[in-house]
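Hello again, I could really use a second opinion on something today. I've been staring at a protein lately and its backbone has me curious. Can you walk me through what the tokens say about the fold? Take your time with it, there's no hurry, and the full record follows here:
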Amino acid sequence: MAGPGPRTGEAMEPESEVSEAEVERQQQQVSAAIDITARFDEAIGLKENVKKRQLWTRDQKVEHLGLRCQGGAEANSADVAAPEPRDGWDPARDIIKKLARLPGSMATRERLAIIFVCPKYRWSAPLIE
């Protein structure tokens, strides 16, 4: 039975997609990565909530730590979409517009932006680098 192709939506024969050996190799790599992560988490006193595991493909976005990211492209590729906040950029833009109408110096507004805007999208950055 032919299924849709990975990007074009055209029908492909299952034999032409990926060999069983390649699927097995990738499954072993995923299992090894999960084991390494579990050992690290245990060493620092964390425990994974396996109910929150997500299986996703390169064409899907995943939400993690309040950010929406899309994986699958090479790290240095122009195809990599920048992470964006869970609620998008509109909440940060709204706060910036309100700050522009406040009385006071530009330096005061800059400090308020650092306090109220930056945390909306920067709090998780050290955790994902």
Observations:
- The chain has a mean pLDDT of 77.
- Residues 20-43 form the longest helix (24 residues).
- The beta strands are 3-4, 11-12, 61-64, 67-70, 84-85.
